[in-house]
Design a protein that fits this description.
The complex is a heterodimer of chains A (about 90) and B (about 210). Chain A is built from five helices and no strands. By secondary structure, chain A is mostly helical. Chain B is mostly helical and about 210 residues long. Chain B has two domains: about 10-90, Rna Polymerase Sigma Factor, Chain: A (Orthogonal Bundle), CATH 1.10.1740.10; about 105-205, Orthogonal Bundle (Arc Repressor Mutant, subunit A), CATH 1.10.10. In chain B, helix 2 (about 20-45) crosses helix 4 (about 75-90), helix 4 (about 75-90) runs parallel beside helix 9 (about 170-175) and helix 7 packs antiparallel against helix 10 (about 180-205). The longest helix of chain B is centred in the last third of the chain and has 25 residues, at about 180-205. The termini of chain B are far apart. The chains are: A mainly alpha (about 90), B mainly alpha (about 210). The interface between A and B is large, with 50 and 55 residues.
């Protein structure tokens, strides 16, 4: 039988839909009976969404500026190609 | 087919990059560099990683005309970065050391009793959406702090999979890890973020 600790170990696999049939079913059965594990799965999902919302919000401006400078410099010496003026 | 209008905005960006259009490069640099840095940081320290990302953009200026669009632009760029990093590691005879042995964070593993049931169950409650929560500057700063404290390997895996939305298969290719090891990296990183948010919500401290 799947225990809470086992479920915690494979929680990400469950969230990402990476578990195979029987294993997935045993997680679902456990979740029906265990509110703590339901809460843990919900929390892990919400924390991940939070991280996603956070990390897509702001690039490091200095890092971007340094690349822009390198690229601008390199574009000056770029060899012209067919189709450049289209 | 009318080639003057691009229904696919990425297709139009790629054409502009091929023409050497500087504003297209600015746009692409802003959009793709954070992900490229996440790839490079998996393999290298920050300053070497940043150098590799810059070098890759310079390479892209000449190599973009060879880009055929079989993969997306993002995946193509990430692969270039990964290959450069691997070459650099090879030439310095170094390897990325990663611990894949445990899928549970010790701090979480200690919250179960001997029978494997929760001793100290999760206390976290989310009443608001992620976007609303991120308006809390203290929480945002705390996430910053904890994301930068993650082992590079875990952070890169998490960023590529979550923030840059690569498929598992692509992340495995780019980071050169097996599917099961990627699962361990992702799960360890997510648990750390969960523990951090839980502490923050309970105590208001980071």
């Amino acid at each position: 039988m799947l225990m809470c600790k086992d479920l915690a170990g494979i929680a990400s696999d469950y969230i990402d839909g990476e578990l195979t049939g029987r294993r997935n079913l045993s997680v679902k059965m456990h979740l029906m009976m265990c509110k703590h594990c339901r809460s843990f799965i919900g929390n892990l999902r919400a924390s991940t969404d939070l991280m996603k919302a956070h990390s897509s919000s702001k690039p490091d401006e200095e890092f971007i500026r340094r690349i822009d400078e390198r690229v601008a410099e390199a574009l000056k010496t770029r060899k012209p190609r067919d189709g450049d003026n289209e | 087919m009318n080639t003057a209008v691009h229904p696919d905005p990425q297709g139009s960006l790629i054409e502009d990059l091929k023409r050497g259009d500087s504003s297209a490069y600015k746009k692409a640099v802003r959009e793709y560099s954070p992900g490229m840095l996440a790839v490079a940081r998996f393999y290298l320290d920050y300053s070497s990683a940043e150098e590799i990302v810059q070098d890759c953009w310079v390479t892209v200026i000449d190599a973009i005309h060879k880009f055929e669009g079989r993969s997306g632009l993002k995946t193509w760029l990430h692969r270039i970065v990964a290959n450069r990093c691997k070459n650099k590691l090879r030439s310095s005879k170094r390897e990325v050391a990663i611990d894949f042995s445990e899928s549970l964070e010790p701090e979480l593993a200690n919250r179960f009793n001997a029978t494997g049931r929760w001793d100290l169950p999760p206390s976290l409650k989310f009443h608001e959406s992620a976007d609303t929560l991120m308006e809390n500057d203290a929480l945002s700063d705390c996430l910053d702090k904890h994301l930068s404290a993650l082992p590079e390997t875990q952070r890169s895996a998490l960023m590529l999979y979550e923030a840059h939305q690569h498929k598992s298969e692509d992340v495995c290719n780019i980071l050169d890890v097996s599917a099961s090891n990627l699962r361990v990296l992702l799960h360890r990183a997510r648990q750390k973020i969960f523990l951090m948010v839980e502490t923050f919500q309970e105590t208001g401290e980071c």
